[in-house]
Amino acid sequence: RAFARVKIPWLLMTGTKDVALIGDVDVENRLAVYPALPGPEKYELLLDGAEHSVFGEGPVKRADPAHHRAILALSTAFLDRYLRDDAGAAAWLDGAGPRSVLAEKDRWQSGRVAAASRPRADELKESASPHEPEGAPGR
């Protein structure tokens, strides 16, 4: 209920092994936030096999080195869209762009893509765009 009044864009990132070492926050708790947020200005990334430490920059052993690339590309596109009003970043986020930096078992959701027409992850992978937003890794 607390999320119903949120009026800003959200980018939620978590992993299938992202559990709190302190407290009772588990992956299910983290995944409950996205559906509770109102409106279309929301995105959610679920990285398969990622622990909480994957989202940091320290000397952490990463289960999948591609996770860091996906985190950088998606967060850069999100910030470009909302802080720079970049139409290319918006199209990339809401189109097939995210699938181009994700593994098959990773999940991406956009509030701008109608739930009824949202394709499955395996369908998106086949139509992935090579476009990445300005400043994303590889650009």
Catalogue the unreliable spans. Answer: 114-139
Q: Give me the count of strands.
A: 3
What's the helix-strand series? EHHEHHEH
How are the strands of the biggest sheet laid out side by side? 1-2-3
What general outline do the C-alpha atoms trace?
A: globular
Provide a count of the helices.
Answer: 5
Question: Tell me about the biggest sheet?
Answer: 3 strands, mixed
End-to-end span in angstroms? Answer: 40 Å
Percent helix, as a range, is 25-40%
Helix/strand structural class: alpha+beta
The whole-number mean of residue pLDDT values reads: 80
Strand content: 15-25%
Rg, Cα atoms, Å: 15 Å
Short recap of the structure:
The chain is α+β, with helices and mostly antiparallel strands and 139 residues long. The protein has helices at 27-31, 33-36, 66-83, 87-94, 121-126; strands spanning 10-17, 42-51, 107-110.
What are the defining features of this structure?
139 residues; alpha+beta; 3-stranded mixed beta sheet; globular
Protein described:
- By secondary structure, this protein is of the alpha+beta class.
- Helices cover 29% and strands 16% of the residues.
- The chain has five helices and three strands, in the order βααβααβα.
- It has a three-stranded mixed beta sheet with strand order 1-2-3.
- Helix 3 (66-83) packs across helix 4.
